[in-house]
Amino acid sequence: LKLNMLQDNPGAVKKRRRIGRGIGSSKGKTSGRGHKGQKARSGGSIPLFFEGGQTRFFKLLPKRGFTNKRHKAEMVSLNVGTIQDYIDMGRFPTTISSEGGSNNNERIPVWTMKDLLDAGLFTASSVKHGIKLLGQGKERLRTPFRLEISRASESAIAAIEAIGGEVTTVHYNNLALRALLKPHKFGAVRQIPKFARPPPKWQPYY
């Protein structure tokens, strides 16, 4: 046995039958599609839910329940390990002046979601309802920081507080989120709007 003698077993590879290659191929002329009709045309397949023109079955059934999908607030996910990677790249200011006081907590930088955008983690158009902080990569976290964000998981909060940081969850409605991420849209004439209260469903969380 040599390398140039390696080959498949007889019958292991079977050539496919080519259609439309003459009568002798057993799939010539109409290529197995029969004569005329919708199914004989290119792209003329019939959907599985088509019932010959009669009312479809799912339309005969009454509607039950309701869905709140239209008003679902989908958060952009962010892991704490990613923040540490961007800190190592020098995308965040990690030190501030100590003129504010002697408390060590006051010397830790406070970042908002606007700082996350400025660091290049997201674009303003991708954040529709806010950002949620997750705990993946928490074993790499070593730089303390204070963060104001829409939502955060318990593991992410515990990981940041373990190294001396702090996480504050803040509710942003659409107007407040736009004022935070795009303050230039309001200019010097228009006043930055006040933050709205969270809805009753989320008041216990915040």
Could you describe the 3D structure shown?
There is one protein chain. Residues 97-101 have low confidence and may be disordered. The strands form 2 sheets. The protein has a 3-stranded parallel sheet. It has a 3-stranded parallel sheet with strand order 2-4-6. It is built from 5 helices and 6 strands; from the N terminus they run αβαβαβββαβα. The protein has helices at residues 57-60, 80-88, 113-118, 154-162, 174-181; strands at 76-79, 110-111, 131-134, 146-149, 151-152, 166-169. By secondary structure, it is α/β, with parallel strands linked by helices. The protein has a domain at 76-96 and 107-198: Ribosomal Protein L15, Chain: K, domain 2. The longest helix has 9 residues, at 80-88. Keywords: Ribonucleoprotein, Ribosomal protein. This is Ribosomal protein L15. GO terms for molecular function: structural constituent of ribosome.
